[in-house]
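In this section we walk through a basic example: taking a raw amino acid sequence and producing a predicted 3D structure, encoded as discrete structure tokens. The instruction is simple. Fold the sequence below.
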Amino acid sequence: MTNPLPLADAAKLTPHLSFSRQEWARLRAATPLTLTEQDLATLRGINERLSLEDVADVYLPLSRLLNLYVGATQALHKATDTFLGNLPAKVPYVIGIAGSVAVGKSTTARVLQALLKRWPDHPKVDLITTDGFLHPTRVLESRGLMKRKGFPESYDQRRLVQFVSDVKAGKPEVTAPVYSHLLYDIVPNEQQVVRKPDILIVEGLNVLQTGEAAPGRAPRLFVSDFFDFSIYIDAAEEAIEEWYVARFLKLREKVFVNPRSYFHKYASLSEAEAAATAHGIWGEINGPNLRENIQPTRERAQLILEKGGDHGIRGVRLRKL
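The resulting token sequence is shown next.
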């Protein structure tokens, strides 16, 4: 039996480089801030306190890094085409963003999209969320999966993989289903069209998922197999649960009052009743999904954004090449 490595030596084996917020902010170099406060107001999620300082410290260095990675990847594709004697082909750069419900994935995705499309080499940046690839409510109900919504089995994984594969292959036009948070369901006969973007951002709970092949069967493809870069938004579960409850209470005042809302039944609850309901949903669905499926994929990400209880980014971990 071999002796375990001392803790100091084991720490050196981590695949990530760690940066404090201040250290990461310095890597912005001379990258200009191209977003205004008015821009930011349209990008923030509910109950998030994202500021222009956050953008400058965290997202500008990240956009600079991604711009360098996109350029290097494009050069690599061109070199491969030259070697094979093919005409240069445009291959979209695909970025995956993962993390829990209410952790701020959507805001991160929108801010990155806004920043990346301002770089001259890749002005066309599309964003899709995997919500559109959830099975419709009628399918989830027939399979007894409504209380597993957001778990891996609630998605049409085959369709999601095919979508990203088609985008990556350079198909002229690829369509994705559209999800309505108001209806809590797929919108019939509505599609998002993606037409040969320079960059595609794919945001969702379980996008870094992978798995073992069954004995005697070919390895299964996952959407993460098509990513050029991946990001995980991390925070303590206790903080995320509080953010989820706060968001639920805010939605109760705004969205839930709409009679068309799937959650309209919660609009008449008192604040205490609504908070208890939100904690119950977290304990039954979102918490287990985070612990069982989402958080275990964290270390697969090339970049991990570590949030404190105030939603602010406190540290960054970047995978070593």
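Looking at the output, two observations stand out. The longest helix spans residues 52-84. Residues 28 and 65 are 9 Å apart (CA to CA). In the next section we compare this with other chains.
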